[in-house]
Amino acid sequence: MLDSFKSPLVVVGRVLLALMFVMAGFSKLGNIAGTAGYIASAGLPMATVLAVATGLFELLAGLALAVGFNARWAALALGMFTLLASVLFHNFWAVPADKQMVQQLLFMKNLAVSGGMFIVAAFGGGALSIDARRTAAA
Predict the structure, then answer these.
(1) How far is CA 111 from CA 36, 37, 87, in A?
(2) CB contact at 8 A, 22 and 63
(3) Are the beta carbons of 23 and 66 closer than 8 angstroms?
(4) What are phi and psi for residue 49, nearest 5 degrees?
(5) pLDDT per residue over 63-113, tens digit each?
(6) How far apart are alpha carbons 68 and 134 in whole angstroms?
(7) Cα 63 to the chain's mean position, in Å?
(8) C-alpha span between 60 and 26 (Å, rounded)
(9) Distance between CA atoms of residues 70 and 50, nearest Å
(10) Which pTM does this prediction carry?
């Protein structure tokens, strides 16, 4: 691959990974009651507090990832969050047979997203990121 494509591809990758979380954060914050109901359905305590905290986390960490601000930490946190959410909310092994396929698909999608996040955590946000600009300015 041409080196001239690497930096733009990293930006596109960061933005595409972040988009899921930014949109989910907005959605959760726009419907706290519905989000809290879904969280409570998994048996988690303090569902309203968790709904607000989760919405803010997804929105802020997603934006940080998109622009490459503390990209490694944002990606690591989002990757771990996604793994936890997968186990709690997409436990295909514990749902009725007619729901297993969809839940397994969502679980596997989340594993792939976590994998992408861990790659960003390992390699950073790339040359076209706020992190790179801060490092160059130091």
Answers:
(1) 24, 24, 10
(2) yes
(3) no
(4) -60, -45
(5) 999 999 999 999 999 999 999 999 999 999 999 999 999 999 999 999 999
(6) 10
(7) 10
(8) 10
(9) 23
(10) 0.94
